[in-house]
Specification:
It is globular and about 70 Å long. The longest helix has 17 residues. Helix content is 32%, strand content 23%. With 681 residues, the protein is α/β, with parallel strands linked by helices. The chain has 21 helices and 32 strands. The two termini are 31 Å apart. The strands form 9 sheets. The protein has an 8-stranded mixed sheet with strand order 12-11-8-6-7-14-15-25, sandwiched between helices. A 7-stranded mixed sheet has the order 5-4-17-16-18-19-20, sandwiched between helices. The structure holds ligand 6R9. Ligand 6R9 binds next to helix 12, strand 20, strand 26 and strand 27. Keywords: ATP-binding, Ligase, Lipid metabolism, Nucleotide-binding, Signal. Its EC number is 6.2.1.1. Belongs to the ATP-dependent AMP-binding enzyme family. It catalyses: acetate + ATP + CoA = acetyl-CoA + AMP + diphosphate; propanoate + ATP + CoA = propanoyl-CoA + AMP + diphosphate. It comes from Oncorhynchus kisutch (Coho salmon).
């Protein structure tokens, strides 16, 4: 499982690391007071500063999480047990005995105190056309939708699939599910009909919610048509609720329900269901190292608590701030930091429908100025893209509202970090590089919270969040206890935000996350702990590629490629790409006697991949080879292929176990032909 790749990568990363001390929390000055920071901390004996609070949170985890859960969530009935977890069985339960409703925590309680506060700013594709929705309005939308779902037969425990672009009705749909006790399964609207169908079937959804069309970067996308194609192969689907994002009508069948029209017939009051802490809140599919994406399951109380606490403290979010997370709601970042975390905190959250370069590369910063965004949370791939357009696109706009800048999804290289900090943040905003995963539910490692004035090192996620106890393990499974070491990143005790299982595949859950290092949750990432004890994430240790922050399993891609007529077998490899982080390079072996022009084959493969998965999964390079380098036992030597695509052919390592050493030379020659000897185009 552990590949040697990342040791090399680490060396490059650390040596290029331009260390710089960055001071923060200056506004808190010397009068830092733990109680003013986290009110619950007053009750924690001996805690007087951040590091004391962190130690308390991991050593007295029951007391820490118990106090925080009582203080920050509204319960219908109190929990009797803080945690009941056993990693060896993959058993994770938090706040058992407790009952609550997530939508009440995100909406009703704020409607009681500040009904006219803006909950949501929908930043529509066309700049300057944003729509503001107050807590009172969002609750009304949610209740009407909840009532409609009930009228359409959706019951507690059902799973509703949501295939929508970022829009208020998507958010209200998620909250409506939570209100009536149904689980949601949001599928990113960039996924193809086949990928959508797979997820609908696996989740056994009978209801799908979508829009007639989406609008992104000035282009109209026929989302309803994609749903129509998908549900042809989904016998469980009984109804499709269709909201109107554009004015264009689309064909409707008996199965389709016009959402706005039917919703307006419903009452604005919908009784929230009392849910158990461990009832399912949602499924979210993500790629792993097998061909089949896994539906990670998150539950009610623990997830909500963890996202709200991290939202509050990692970003230093305060009442009245405008929080701008520009992710899509189809990913975990959107779930945790557009919807649940900010709303649980009564915050104002931005829902971004557009792209970083529409109508021009100043879009983000024009939006920051117009909406007065205080915390901006985005992806390194977008930062890398924008920095190529130059500083002027940033400097044209007033960014004085910004207080914290966040980064998520993939490692942020020093150059991008520096630019984000110096140009976007004018050198005055802390940049928080936040490491976490769909599996972890919320941010686990980030430079903040920390002691006031603690340094921030570019490109480092640095410190574990409250309650998170990271560990690095070597290939033998031994814990590396000293600093300045590199290993598999694991987490050694449970936290409330972690996923509970894989939908219908608990065994896959335990095998993937708990068997590799018994007693630990294994993240799939490698990390380095510096001399100072700061964590730096290196990247995946398994066969997952990270394309623009989107996860893609190599096996998932190979399954599709192998179905292409004429293809005998294939190997998909990630290579470093200066904007996307990683690009996809596919080696293909054709069946005997098949003759096809390489560009015709490439075109066919790309079409198949966008039809079966999504556009982002399309290979950048496709190389036809006579055979793949394999061991004598028939295993593809990915390590060798990686070295070839990374142009490290003088470090191929030990090739003695190769079945046919000549195959490597052929692969190298073909690679040179395809990409030339120069730099990446
Ligand atoms: C939130 C999210 C998770 C994988 C993760 C890791 C990579 C995320 C990172 C990072 C380096 C960071 N990743 N944040 N790598 N630095 N700050 O992205 O979830 O889509 O499940 O991806 O992304 O490899 O394991 P998800």
């Amino acid at each position: 499982m552990m590949c040697s790749l990342w040791r090399g990568t680490l060396l490059t990363l650390t040596s290029s690391l331009n260390r710089r001390v960055f001071q923060c929390c200056r506004q808190l000055g010397r009068s830092y007071n733990i109680a003013s920071c986290m009110p619950e901390a007053v009750a924690f004996q001996g805690v007087s500063d951040h590091s004391g609070l962190y130690k308390f949170s991991v050593n007295e985890s029951d007391r820490f999480w118990g106090a925080v859960a009582r203080q920050r969530l509204s319960w219908i009935s109190p929990f009797h047990t803080v945690q009941n977890c056993d990693f060896s069985q993959g058993k994770i339960k938090w706040f058992e005995g407790g009952k609550l409703n997530v939508s009440v925590n995100c909406l009703d309680r704020h409607v009681q105190t500040c009904p006219e506060r803006v909950a949501l700013i929908w930043e529509r594709d066309e700049p300057g056309t944003e729509v503001k929705i107050t807590y009172r309005q969002l609750l009304e939308l949610t209740c009407r939708l909840g009532n409609l779902l009930k009228r359409q037969g959706v019951r507690r425990g059902d799973c509703v699939t949501i295939y929508m672009p970022p829009c208020p009705l998507a958010m209200a749909s998620m909250l409506a599910c939570a209100r009536i006790g149904a689980a949601h399964n949001v599928v990113f609207a960039g996924f193809s009909s086949e990928a959508l169908a797979d997820r609908i079937r696996d989740a056994q959804s009978s209801t799908v919610i979508t829009v007639n069309q989406g609008v992104r970067g000035g282009k109209v996308v026929d989302l309803k048509r994609t749903v129509d194609q998908a549900v042809q192969n989904c016998p469980t689907v009984q109804q499709v609720l269709v909201a109107m994002r554009t004015e264009n009508t689309v064909p409707m069948t008996d199965r389709d329900v016009p959402l706005e029209e039917e919703m307006m017939k419903e009452d604005v009051v919908c009784e929230p269901v009392a849910m158990d802490s461990e009832d399912v809140l949602f499924l979210l599919y993500t790629s792993g190292s097998t061909g089949k994406p896994k539906g990670l399951v998150h539950t009610q109380a623990g997830y909500l608590l963890y996202t709200s606490l991290t939202h509050r403290y990692v970003f230093n979010y305060h009442d009245g701030d405008v929080f701008g997370c520009v992710a899509d709601i189809g990913w975990i970042t959107g779930h945790s930091y557009i919807v649940y975390g900010p709303l649980c905190n009564g915050g104002t959250t931005v829902l971004f429908e557009s792209t970083p370069v529409y109508p021009n590369p100043g879009r983000y910063w024009e939006m920051v100025e117009r909406l007065g965004i205080n915390q901006f949370y985005g992806a390194p791939t977008a930062i890398r893209l924008l920095l190529k357009y130059g500083d002027e696109w940033v400097q044209n706009y007033n960014r004085s509202s910004l207080k914290t800048l966040g980064s998520v999804g993939e490692p942020i290289n020093t150059e991008a970090w520096e630019w984000y900090h110096r140009v976007v943040g004018d050198g005055r905003c802390p940049v928080v590089d936040t490491w976490w995963q769909t599996e972890t539910g919320g941010i686990c490692i980030a430079p903040r919270p920390a002691d006031p004035e603690a340094e921030i090192v570019p490109g480092m996620a640095m410190h574990p969040f409250y309650g998170i106890k990271p560990a690095l393990l070597d290939t033998e499974g031994e814990v590396l206890s000293s600093n300045d070491s590199t290993g598999a990143l694991c987490i050694s005790q449970a936290w409330p935000g972690m996923a509970r299982t894989i939908h219908n595949h608990h065994q896959r859950f335990t095998e993937t996350y708990f068997h590799p290092y018994p007693g630990f949750f294994f993240t799939g990432d490698g990390a380095h702990r510096s001399k100072e004890g700061y964590y730096q994430i290196i990247g995946r240790l398994d066969d997952v590629i990270n394309v623009s922050g989107h996860r893609l399993g190599t096996a998932e891609l190979e399954d599709v490629v192998n179905q292409c007529p004429g293809v005998a077998e294939s190997a998909a490899i990630g290579y470093s790409h200066d904007i996307k982080g990683e690009g996809v390079y596919v080696f293909v072996v054709l069946k005997k006697a098949v003759m096809v022009e390489e560009d015709v084959l490439a075109q066919q493969l790309r079409e198949m991949v966008s039809r079966s998965i999504a556009k982002y999964a399309c290979p950048d390079f496709i190389q036809v080879v006579r055979c793949l380098p394999k061991t004598r036992s028939g295993k593809i030597m990915r390590r060798v292929l990686r070295k070839v695509v990374e142009r490290n052919t003088d470090e191929l390592g030990d090739l003695s176990t190769l079945d046919d050493p000549d195959s490597v030379h052929e692969v190298i020659r073909g690679h040179r032909r395809l990409r030339g000897d120069g730099k990446q185009q």
